[in-house]
Amino acid sequence: MSERKFFVGGNFKMNGNKSSLADIVANLNKIDCPNTDVVVAPPSIYLQYLSASITNQVKVASQNCYKVAKGAYTGEISPDMLKDMGIEWVILGHSERRHVFNESNELIGQKVKHAVESGIKIIPCVGEKLDEREAGVTENIVFEQMEMIKNNVSDWSGVVIAYEPVWAIGTGKTATPDQAQEVHDKIRKWLAKNVSDEVAATTRIIYGGSVNASNCKELAKCKDIDGFLVGGASLKPEFNDIVKANA
Ligand code: PEP
């Protein structure tokens, strides 16, 4: 039996309003899956709205946070603020942060460092773009991103790595189980070599990229896939099926 508890995250991105989120919460509250960690990330303005009505089984995450605790950083929120409001998780370095908002590997590293030191659990994301995969440099890109994460993580117990090939996010083009497993295996071996065997064996590596109720079971069978980060399908009732993908 794996030492790693299955983990399913839902990233709502910039979607939802009070009415649609109430429907989503009603659906999430039907989840009965004690063997899976379930964490959903609404837009920050709705973090409290969700936290107030969601059951204990489902945790709430922020989609982002900044690299310092407070100050003149208009529009930003800090890990301390999230913790103050009872939020335990944050997604960092999502591909949309990297490629739409031009967040550098370095900035993501700084955010990772500050979040971990602040005691919030993190879901840092890594993944290659299509041209990078086609150029055969997937491994170099992913390892470079992993290096920046590793250099800034002092305690791995609250880290879940999300491998999200950019070409698979929101495109309907899921990585095949073999493609995903291959990269997950490489990330795990990289962790063993560059951090420790224990961190490699215990850190959850989840897959993201057009996961849905139809493809999740095959992906979940892969030895090194410990769950999913789900975008579009996390807004739909089928999210509950994805949560049970390994059952
Ligand atoms: C994501 O936003 O992290 C994601 C994987 O999106 P989607 O499932 O829609 O591809």
From TrEMBL:
Entry-linked PROSITE patterns: TIM_1 (PS00171), TIM_2 (PS51440)
Species of origin reads Phallusia mammillata
Q: What class of enzyme is it?
A: isomerase
Q: What is the lineage of its organism?
A: Eukaryota, Metazoa, Chordata, Tunicata, Ascidiacea
Specify the protein name: Triosephosphate isomerase
Any one cellular-component term (Gene Ontology): cytosol
User: Which superkingdom is the protein from?
Assistant: Eukaryota
What role does it play?
Answer: It is also responsible for the non-negligible production of methylglyoxal a reactive cytotoxic side-product that modifies and can alter proteins, DNA and lipids. Triosephosphate isomerase is an extremely efficient metabolic enzyme that catalyzes the interconversion between dihydroxyacetone phosphate (DHAP) and D-glyceraldehyde-3-phosphate (G3P) in glycolysis and gluconeogenesis.
EC number of this enzyme = 5.3.1.1
Recorded catalytic reaction(s): these are: D-glyceraldehyde 3-phosphate = dihydroxyacetone phosphate; dihydroxyacetone phosphate = methylglyoxal + phosphate
